[in-house]
Amino acid sequence: MKTRRDFLIQSGVFTAGSLLLPSCMFANEPIRKFGVQLYSFRDAMDQDAVGTLRQIASIGFKEIESAGSSKGYYYGLSPLEMKKVCDDLGMNLKSGHVRLDEKWQKTMEDAVTSGQEYLICSSMPSNGQTADNYKKVAEEFNKAGEQCKKLGLKFGYHNHEYEFESDKGQVLYDILLDHTDPDLVHMELDLGWVIVAGKDPLDYFAKYPSRFPLWHLKDMDMTKKESTEFGKGGLDIRKMMENQKASGLQHIFIEQEEYTSTPLESMKENLAFLSKL
Question: What is the predicted pLDDT for the residue at 32?
Answer without folding.
Answer: 60
